Amino acid sequence: MEYRQLGASGLKVPALTLGTGTFGGGNEFFKAWGSSDVAEATRLVDICLESGLTMFDSADVYSGGLAEEILGQAIKGRRDKLLISTKGSFPRGTGPNDLGSSRHHLTRAVEASLRRLGTDYIDLYQLHGFDALTPVEETLATLDGMVRAGKIRYIGCSNFSGWHLMKSLATSEKHGFARHVAHQAYYSLVGRDYEWELMSLALDQKVGTVVWSPLGWGRLTGKLRRGQPMPEVTRLQSKIAADKGPQVPQEHLYKVVDSLDAVAKETGKSIPQVALNWLLQRPSVATLIIGARNEEQLRQNLGAIGWKLSPDQIARLDAASAVPLTYPYWHQRGTFLERNPPAV
Q1: Residues 133 and 140 sit within 8 Å (Cβ to Cβ)
Q2: DSSP alpha helix (H) spans, 65-152
Q3: Among 100, 105, 44, which Cα is nearest to 290's?
Q4: Does residue 226 register a pLDDT over 50?
Q5: In order of start, what are the domains of the chain with their CATH numbers?
Q6: How far apart are CA 231 and CA 218, in angstroms?
Q7: Is 111 helix (H, G, I), strand (E, B) or coil?
Q8: Which of 21, 52, 188, 241 is the most buried (most CB within 10 A)?
Q9: How far apart are CA 73 and CA 36, in angstroms?
Q10: Please, are residues 100 and 134 in contact by the beta-carbon 8 Å criterion?
Q11: pLDDT for the residue 232
Q12: Residue 106 CA neighbour count, 13 Å, CB half
């Protein structure tokens, strides 16, 4: 396993992280991801630790907290051998204060996550989304207090836009608060808009990117191919619109899959392994969150490390997955290029 520095912190994280969205299957949305019980989750953790994968990502909304509970049971007796990252700020009830990044909600959310996980500290706590109603100073002061109290080791955020993250970093610098060292963001061969602004920010401000859904919401598993029906077992068949993830034009998807297929044949690897390896070589990426319904999927995903695509193979995947830039990025690329070099 390769270990990488997480942003500007001194923490080293494995190149792959196991996501626990597949733990529990507490409702239809999460059943489409997976429904591992404590026994299966424990087995997956065993395999991860044997391979050197020592980081496990969760969130308080995954199966209504059940994912955190199962993770807590699965790691019992070996807390010191691994890293836990989890997230909060999404709705956890119907009350007006049961969501967001206020001092009130975050304090309750962190304490609840600690209880479910069966631990007295969280290695990386991330805001699951940006709360535009709560002052950034209040949010960061609250998290900073938890860092000082030893309940959280490092803080991060998820799904922030560039200005959300930059405002947070500037606020931390101004007041001496703990600083976001990680940004959990969507990035894949069929979702490269992360590169337009967030990658440049991450490199400039030394924020490590924790990639979620690196296989494009299940589109890059190799099961979706031109002229073939969609497999029955996939999140994309879910009746819940939100579970279909970001929209990807079919022809663009097939173009990317065709290129992945060609590279997979050259390397003797699977399509998902090639897609993950491509991401591991992108600037700013600290770790990829991989999911696994079962042991077989986990071992397949672990096969994405220990080797590298060639520059030519990367260039072909880049070309196949490229999409037109939106404003102002197309304008920046077309003018004063020597003073505004692209991040990649």
Answers
A1: no
A2: 66-74, 103-117, 136-148
A3: 44
A4: yes
A5: 3-339 (3.20.20.100)
A6: 11
A7: helix
A8: 188
A9: 12
A10: yes
A11: 59
A12: 27
- pLDDT per residue over 166-176, tens digit each? 999 999 999 99
Strands 285-290 and 16-19, bridge-based pairing: parallel
- Determine the 3-state secondary structure of 219 from DSSP: coil
The owner of tokens 């990426």 is 285
Q: Is 62 a catalytic residue?
A: yes
> Cα(126)–Cα(87) distance, rounded to whole angstroms?
5
Which tokens sit at 67? 């994912």
> Residue 245: pLDDT band by 50, 70, 90 thresholds?
confident
Predicted local distance difference test score (pLDDT) of residue 280: 98
Mean pLDDT, residues 80-93: 97
Stated length of the chain: 344
SS3 category, 16: strand
Interior angle at CA 219, CA 12 and CA 189, nearest 5: 55
Q: Which residue has the tokens 């489409």?
A: 32
Q: Is the pLDDT of residue 150 over 60?
A: yes
Contact 188, 182 (CB under 8 A): no
CB atoms within 10 A of CB 102: 19
Residue type at 315? A
Q: Please provide residue 87's backbone torsions phi and psi, each rounded to the nearest 5 degrees.
A: -140, 155
SS3 (DSSP) at 161: coil
- Write down the residue that tokens 């409702």 correspond to: 27
Catalytic residue among 3, 62, 125, 254: 62
3-state SS, residue 197:
coil
Q: How far is CA 127 from CA 9, 214, 272, 288, in A?
A: 18, 20, 28, 18
Helix/strand/coil for 133:
coil
**Tokens encoding 153:** 């080791």
Q: Confirm if 317 and 264 have CB atoms less than 8 A apart.
A: no
